[in-house]
Amino acid sequence: MTLSQSLALPCGATLPNRLAKSAMTEGLADARGLPTPELERLYGIWSDGGCGMLLSGNIQIDRDHLERPGNVIIDDELDEEGAAAFKRWTAAGTRAGNHFWAQISHAGRQTFSMINPHPKAPSAVKLGLPGGQFGEPVALEDAEIEAIIAKFVSAVRQCKEVGFTGVQVHGAHGYLISQFLSPRSNQRADRWGGSLENRAALLLRVIEGSREAVGPEFPISVKLNSADFQKGGFAFEDSLQVVQWLQERGVDLIEISGGTYEQPKLLGIEGMEPADDPGVAASTVAREAYFVDFAKAMKDAVDAPLMVTGGFRSRVAMEQAVSSGAADVVGLARPLCVAADGAIQILEGADTLPTVEKDLSLFPPVLQFLNGVKALRAAAGFATQFWFYMQIYALGRTGRTDPDLSVFKAWRSVEKEHAQRLKAMRAA
């Protein structure tokens, strides 16, 4: 079976099969941002679930720029207690002999205002979303950018030291590195803005510094948008060039994704189709795998191993993605929130993974009144996302999912959880 084949990475490490649990935000860290027993239980369950590699959710390098309350944080040198907490987590996450990689991130302007009303970003360009969930960003100074590079590299080094078997630098989904890459959010006129080479400099410096810090045999990967799906944003041609630069710097695996909070294609939201994207078959938006055509086009130009995540449910689609050469690794996310052993099911011959469609009927009238049709689609997608947050909470806390939970109750529960965690963080 194609999916059960191992994959040798350029650094020499080997993934035992072609299925990976892709990154999903957990929200289960303690008030200091350290891993908890809930995270140990969660990743132990996923380790037993059959994926050859697990990716953590966002591990943030700056506690003032979290993606959400409850993120794991490495923004300084870990003390003995902190290192021990991470080592317990990585031991649980590798107990079945799989890889467990840390996703390293900085939210930039996509930091909720309840965490930071004035987050740092490449330029003072606010997110184009209604409401006050995101504050007014402040443009980073040159010295602050250099400090961010150092923080990324430090986090990568420490992740190796505490037992992660690889890392992924998050350069997608509109977070800080993605913000630097996009001319819509990066309007700088200095060495960090303007040309694609300048806009990619932060990412490339992070990769170069990380490789120097961890040596040639430790897997370093990058998550990169195939496109932002916004006019004037990070385009497919830009992504292809950045992938070539990453390959030159010895990156071991590149995960292809797409979208930002403003254009959340990453959530597979109906009505958020790509516009004006060259070289992509019209069938892409109607198929299971959202980004397969982008990856296939990249494969014509680069040799670096590629991972594709987004929409996979059937074994046939997964096998076709790998056998056609479009992807070397298939990433699974939401299905593993309801079937943690989904990889085993597929590897043992199951035809498909569970698909959960939740009723959003309570939301459209309210959201349409408040925000208009486009915001309705995005808000509905994020409301559904909260349902999956609650499944992750349930797996971490009890080892079981809660499939009968309503979207409305999940939304209210996550909002309450965020408020409580934010209060605890401020008191810590």
Supply Rg.
Answer: 20 Å
Instruction: Indicate the CATH architecture.
Output: Alpha-Beta Barrel
CATH superfamily, by name, is Aldolase class I
Overall mean pLDDT score? 87
User: How would you spell out the order of helices and strands?
Assistant: EEEHEEHEEEHEHHHEHEHEHEHHHHH
End-to-end Cα distance? 50 Å
- Class per helix and strand makeup: alpha/beta
Per-chain topology:
Elements: E1 7-8, E2 14-15, E3 19-21, H1 37-47, E4 53-60, E5 72-73, H2 80-93, E6 99-105, E7 120-121, E8 138-139, H3 142-161, E9 166-171, H4 176-181, H5 196-199, H6 201-214, E10 220-225, H7 236-248, E11 253-257, H8 292-299, E12 306-309, H9 315-323, E13 329-332, H10 335-338, H11 342-347, H12 364-371, H13 373-398, H14 407-427
Parallel strand pairs: 3-4, 3-13, 4-5, 4-6, 6-9, 7-8, 9-10, 10-11, 11-12, 12-13
Antiparallel strand pairs: 1-2
Helix pairs in contact: 1-2, 1-13, 3-6, 12-13, 13-14
How would you explain this protein's 3D organization?
With 428 residues, the chain is of the alpha/beta class. The chain has one domain: TIM Barrel (Alpha-Beta Barrel), CATH 3.20.20. The chain contains 14 helices and 13 strands. An 8-stranded parallel β-barrel has the order 3-4-6-9-10-11-12-13, surrounded by 6 helices. It has a two-stranded antiparallel ribbon with strand order 1-2. The chain has a two-stranded parallel sheet with strand order 7-8. Strand 12, helix 9 and strand 13 (329-332) form a beta-alpha-beta unit. It starts with 6 loop residues before the first strand and ends with a helix.
